[in-house]
Amino acid sequence: MCLQIQIIKEVLHSLLQSLELLRTNQNTYSPGVFSPRIPNQIVPDILPAAKDIEIAERLLCAYRLSVKDEDRSSEEYVDIWSHNRKYQPTFFTALGNEDPVVLATYLCNMCRHDATHGTVQGYREYLKVKYNPLYRGYISKVTKDKLVLLAEAVGAVGCENPEQGVWGQNFRLPIDQLVDAIESQIELDITPPAIDGGLLKITGSKAQFNERDLNAIFTAWSVTNKLENFSDASILEVGAGAGRVAYWSWRFGIKSYSLIDLAHINVLQGF
Asked: Which of 3, 18, 41, 260 has its CA 20 to 30 A from that of 125?
């Protein structure tokens, strides 16, 4: 009953936010630029494969080792991360269950759970994009805009200036055309791995993208461009979210990459 009440509250909040989004869109963006409907979908739930369960078992062992001395810390010490158990209860329950099948099932669809609150999508955002079509459309447009910006950044399409020449045409290019242009320019397949059950993504015939995918691809591309010999580089990232920048850095050729983060977030990154 409490969960149903919480869901109703979230839906009502999303409806109110939609009205604000409509007003913001009218005041901020040219209707001509943001008028196209962007194809999107919430990735269906993924069932864990044997490899997923094996990885989850390894992660559980590592997590147990990392938190075994947690009780020795001062109970008086409180910081911004001390509230994680309050805001990510289902994630800590899955970890505490110590069943690799349960954890693998949870992590395959982490983007619709509280595990990804603050890093990718999370439970509350999942409810908003699922039940609020206006908000879902808005996030899809923001994501398409990130795809356009990536194409412009790597030189796959020309940059637009509203004071000189055309404006808003790049945003109207089909997703597949933008992806093909980017891949041709950087000589790399940018199709994200199919691991994101429950995550809202814009869809082309070849690939699906969330905003975080595109941010990570751009960041990894930028880093490798700044390094003269990135194949021998070692990178340390502190606070790495779900680890997407590390993944795409590896795809670009960086083989030595370390992450420093909270133990339970390391589980997301490891998966």
From this structure: 260
Taking the CA atoms of the chain, what radius of gyration do you get in angstroms?
Answer: 20
| C-alpha–C-alpha distance, residues 14 and 82, integer Å | 28
DSSP 8-state code for residue 234: E
Model confidence over 76-122: pLDDT tens digits?
667 777 778 888 999 999 999 999 999 999 999 999 999 999 899 99
Q: Is the Cβ–Cβ distance between 232 and 253 less than 8 Å?
A: no
What pLDDT is recorded for position 227? 85
Give 32's DSSP letter: H
Which among 216, 261, 215 has a CA at the least distance from the CA of 236? 261
What tokens appear for 215 in the block?
């941010």
The letter for the amino acid at 212 is R
Cα–Cα distance for residue pair 38/169, rounded to 1 Å: 14
